[in-house]
Amino acid sequence: MAWKGRIQCLSRWLDDHGVSPSRAVVLVPYAQLMEAARRAWAKAHPTGFAPRFESSKNWASNLSPFSPGAMDWSGDLARDSLVASALVDRVAKGRADPVLRTAMVSRLVEATRSLVSVAASVAPEDRASWGQDRLAALGPGLQSPVWEGLIATLAVTWASNSAYSTDVLWGPLARPGEVADALLVWQGFQVDPLAKALTAVWGPERAFVWALFQADESPQTFAHGLDLTDVRWHACGDAEDEAQRAAACVVRHVAVGAVPVALLANDRLLTRRVSALLHSAGVGVRDETGWKLSTTHASAQLMTVLRAADPRASMDDAIDALKLSPLWGDAIAHQVEALARRHGVTRWAAAVAHEKLASVLPVAWCDMLALLQGSKTLEGWLQALGQVLTSAGWWAVLSADAAGQQMLISLRLHPGAATELKGLGPLWEESDGPEPSERRWSLAAFTGWVSDVLESASFTPAAEDAVPVVILPMAQQVARAFGAVVVPGCDERSLPTHPELPAPWTEAQREVLGMPGRAALAQAAWQAWQAMLSYPPIDLLWRSQDRGEDVLPNAWVLALQQAGAPPADEPRAMAEHRPQVPERPAPSAAALLPERLSASAYQDLRDCPYKFFALRQLRLHDADELEDEPDQRDMGNWLHAVLRGFHEERLDQRPGRLADTEALERWAQAVSETMGLQVGAGGAGFMPFQAVWPAMREGYLDWLADYEALHNRAGPSFEAAEVERRAPVGRWQLLGQLDRIDAQPSPEGRLAFVIDYKTESRVRTLERVKDPFEDTQLAFYAALLPEDNLRAAYLSITDKRGTGSDAGTRLIEQPEVLLAREALLEGLANDMARVAAGQPMPALGEGRVCEHCAARGLCRRDDWSAT
């Protein structure tokens, strides 16, 4: 029935009962229908009075504002979670561990929320006895399991002892004949318990109910009586294909003027993706479903701050928060990030204590994060968080954003707003413990509370009224006018014909409590589907694959297909693209030649000229992730730091095996703490390396005992570790950091011995020294030293437990290092001169080097090498 018919029925009833329109209240199932009904009445009756078109909540708020009491349900999780916590503590104090207690509070809020509409439909004076009767009727079903029964009992007790914002509709302000002489109800797909109860109070002479939509046919026969020419279905490949097709369908309808287009939301994530595609196409959208406040940018910023304040926070968490801060931003964050990567620091707590990083960290930022430590009352946490947001410049940014404003209000972050959360819960003067708002909360507990509040709150972005696309739930399409309907998510998972019962009540319990059962929910879903089919043209979409699993369409879609609904054409505009095979790149950039070269830079030039061009001349590089879980590279950095500290402290002393073992263990522990690799600091991923450390330590000490000089034996002695050296070669500067330099006596005097630590596989290290002219690293390091005669070797450190060639630590020397050094210097000067002369830098695309090359995507080796 269209609006014209509904208004005629309403007018006829008022005339038949002698009720003036100004003395009638018409309850609509949801607020969006109020304005549409007013416009329809004004169109049919341009002059005279109009009825009051209201939703039950809107009518109640107009009659009297509502302020919830200490134990009342408010629908605001910031309050309700504290009341639930108080109830759980009251009946199960000391009987539940913290994790179970948190779960119980969450389940209690969920269970009570599902009861609110039923409890509010009982007159306030009868509500408590109604709750007692329901508990008695539920009876033995609440006894097992114990915790589930306790939650159900608390939920019924809470719901039946709470006041509600709509209670004013039971009072004298809304008494029949007081503000209105007739109460007329327009019913949606489901019966509203409150509206049904109010019509019973008003009586048949003063009240009447119309169903806005009535599904007469069954799902099995309905499709065969439809005109299916304007119903099209799309079997999509995956979620992205479905989103793109849905957006294309909407754009096509808008282009031909079939507006407004209803985009029905069955899958929240899918709908968000479609909305983003429409915004990028410049199509205006009004979203009536609302977003979870937790998905907004404002909430993401706030949660980033709380994650950064966690004592176990990673460097990524802290740097993310620093980048988002209006006060510091990217410049400081990038500097901190670069140092953290260089020194292998992955934990914020380790960065604060690190000598090199602590000097560049903003003092004010560290002080602000320190405010968010320890335990505080809820009010104390909110004050501290508000102070941090203000000091870091976030408050002004959030206050200028609609979602940010709602977030600040929802969390009671404005000065003095947190006092509203005090004293919530039942009869605290009779309780031994503190009320929830006065309890000391950890940062983790406070962060969980903030996350729950943001997750439960809904944010509706502002939009113009006259937009071509409206996103709305399936249940809110009744009595609306649309030019076309697009329904993504028509698969058996997102749109089941028989919806699952919402937790936590069973079918039998729902019947006792007066809640709709499975059959009622299925009937409401079917009515919504049938109503949707009254808005042609219609596009129905579903994905046939989801994360590798086959997905079937909804049973109602299958019925439409069997009845003859045609498949849709591809709605996206198709463009022909002819493949073009790229040529092998060979750029030339003499003007970008670096003046300084490291061993790895020259190795890049020898491996592939294009790699040198991309990584060294253009200076392109990937920013390595500051992984939470340590990897082999962290192991190498850690071992280098341990051996450096050990030898710089020990120098040329020989304290004995026991003292050396204790010193190595002490340095291993200290470096782990400095780098944030301790298990207690969140570095559980370092445990495998700690497990092999004893074998590596003993293998290293075994090697050291046979290697270094003793009072009765000549041999090398430690001289320096992590030494930076530079050496000129023509117009270029060679630079590098040597892991270790030892000094060995010889007939010619002191002989320098360069050692480079390797924790890679022993086989790979042996491969390095097979051909002295291919071993760039040791030859390059030798070129950094001025001595005419020297030795150079790799020290392979593994967790092997053998002897000889299978020893855990083995020195692998390059015997031809002097010859290799001369060849390298000659080749380097020649190679760099050719680059400086503008010689092309071709991509070679050969060998093992390409397998893990950072420039592989730039040279497009996979494209041209295939041809």
From TrEMBL:
Q: Which residues form the PD-(D/E)XK endonuclease-like domain?
A: 596-860
Q: Which SUPFAM superfamilies match?
A: P-loop containing nucleoside triphosphate hydrolases
Q: Where is this region: Disordered?
A: 563-587
Ranges of compositional bias, category Basic and acidic residues? 569-581
- One Pfam match, given by its short name, reads PDDEXK_1
Listed name of the protein? PD-(D/E)XK endonuclease-like domain-containing protein
- Record organism: Hydrogenophaga crassostreae
